[in-house]
Amino acid sequence: MKLLSLALLGGVAVVAATGGGLAAFAGLTARRVEAALPPQGRFIDIDGNRIHYLDQGSGPVVLMVHGLGGQMRNFTYALVDKLTDRFRVVVMERPGAGYSRRAPGASARLGVQADVVAKFIGALGLGKPLLIGHSLGGALSLAVALEHPEAVGGLALVSPLTQPQDAPPKVFAGLYIPSPFLRRLLAWTVATPLAIRNRDVVLAQVFGPETAPDDFATRGGGVLNLRPRSFYATSTDLVAVSEDLPGFHARYASLKLPVGIIFGEDDRILDARVHGSPMTGQVPGLTYETIEAAGHMIPLTQPDRVGAFVTAVAGRVFGRTA
């Protein structure tokens, strides 16, 4: 019996030591990442959320909202520079993403995040901006337009999530962790080394059939996802998205503002035939276009086409002088 107890204690010690080593590695990685890629913008507090944002250019306002696991460098990589000569471009990082912090105990539901976006618009005095929503940011932009129509002038949706799904894209399946305790445990143990190991596989799916830029890890902010808090926030967003999306989906026909959608025809994350073309029958007056042989990350890989698309939708919102 004594030998069994010693063996069990030894096993616990090994597990604790391993977990402690992984946590130390995750913490060290996070510190190195943040030292290499510090915040680019400013901060504002909205309902207990610490929101990191960038504000550049002048003219009619466009507000960029990134997708799942994204952050502002997904836009500053190339797209922002295509627009600042004509627009005041504001890029916000959603609660929990990038350098933004989600309020303690706050939900990640689309409706809750939409409230934050609307209050952010009011706090910065942005009027009724054109929302540019990429991927999950597209679903959030739709939620803002439905819940706070007074805060939005129009929607330019880039590879957006628009339809309820039974399951997340396969490449994100490992992020679907309903238990907050397990989510945090994994964030501080295996998430960082697994993200490093699976980097090439994930990038091939997220960018494919196009190739991820060689400097995506730095200039595009990819390594920010190696931080435990990024993993935790991304998993939280993924679990919460299905709570509100079906209800919002049922209300698309009520939208009364200019809406445009652009998709990569070969998007491997969100199928354009599911989330893009059907929206022409769900949203009155919606304009829709695709980019041949392009994938999901077109804000980085196709900035000229996306910039032209945004400008065209902006013309419907602000007038052709935009």
What's this entry about, in short?
The protein is an alpha/beta fold. The chain has one domain: Alpha/Beta hydrolase fold, catalytic domain (Rossmann fold), CATH 3.40.50.1820. It has helices at 2-36, 73-76, 110-123, 136-147, 180-187, 191-197, 199-207, 228-249, 272-275, 298-301, 303-318; strands at 42-46, 49-57, 61-65, 88-92, 130-134, 154-158, 259-264, 287-291.
Describe it:
The protein has 322 residues and is α/β, with parallel strands linked by helices. It has a single domain, classed as Rossmann fold (3-Layer(aba) Sandwich). Helix content is 42%, strand content 14%. The protein has an eight-stranded mixed β-sheet, sandwiched between helices. Helix 3 crosses helix 4 (136-147) and helix 5 (180-187) packs antiparallel against helix 8 (228-249). It is globular and about 60 Å long. It starts with a helix and ends with a helix.
C-alpha-based Rg, rounded: 20 Å
The CATH topology annotation reads as Rossmann fold
Number of separate domains: 1
N-to-C span:
80 Å
Report the biggest beta sheet as strand number plus sense, adding barrel if it closes: 8 strands, mixed
Secondary-structure class: alpha/beta
What would the keywords be for this entry?
alpha/beta; 14% strand; disordered N terminus
Topology:
Elements: H1 2-36, E1 42-46, E2 49-57, E3 61-65, H2 73-76, E4 88-92, H3 110-123, E5 130-134, H4 136-147, E6 154-158, H5 180-187, H6 191-197, H7 199-207, H8 228-249, E7 259-264, H9 272-275, E8 287-291, H10 298-301, H11 303-318
Parallel strand pairs: 3-4, 3-5, 5-6, 6-7, 7-8
Antiparallel strand pairs: 1-2, 2-4
